[in-house]
Amino acid sequence: MVETIPPRLPIAWRNMLFRCKHCGEKCCGLTPEVSEEDVEKIRRVKPSFNPHLTPEGRMILVGEKGFCPFLKNRLCTIHDYKPLLCRLYPFYPVEKKVLERLLSLPEDVEVVKHGSDEYVFLFDEQCPGVGEGDPVDFRKLLEAFLASKSSACSF
Q: Do the beta carbons of residue 59 and residue 51 sit within 8 Å?
């Protein structure tokens, strides 16, 4: 199967704004993969938690009607213990050199350096909090991503 790259990817720009609207519309309808580390954190507040196992053996968060099992009244009941991908949403870091092989990056792209590596962020354009609120601290998001043992997780 040959995958095609869309002509335009949603790439985060400098001084991009974001404020979570606590709507649960997009992020809590995803089925993010969780790591053992994520599961351990969640079990601190929900000891009986067991992630859903996919046929491929991936652990994911999914509850009734496809929404996160920890979403109650449009609020996250494990906010301080959320899995990495939930904490990063609607952003996801990608090595700059990987994207540069596929497409031309916009001039105003936000580039975050970590040692000799450079990262840019893709984002979910459907998230209603994008473009509102305060400037995003992409360095902080990248540090959380790199510090996690589960940086290979996906949505």
A: yes
Cα gap 106→146, rounded to integer Å: 24
CB neighbours of residue 37 within 10 Å: 14
Residue 37 is encoded by which pair of tokens? 């580390």
Residue 67 near residue 29, CB atoms below 8 Å: yes
Torsional sign, CA 33, 83, 131, 141: negative
Distance CA 135, CA 151 (A): 24
Which residues lie closer than 8 Å to 95 by C-beta, 6 or more apart?
Answer: 117, 118, 119
Is the distance from CB of 104 to CB of 9 less than 8 angstroms?
no
> Domain boundaries in the chain?
17-147
Model pTM above 0.85: no
CA distance 8 to 5: 8
Arithmetic mean of pLDDT over the chain: 87
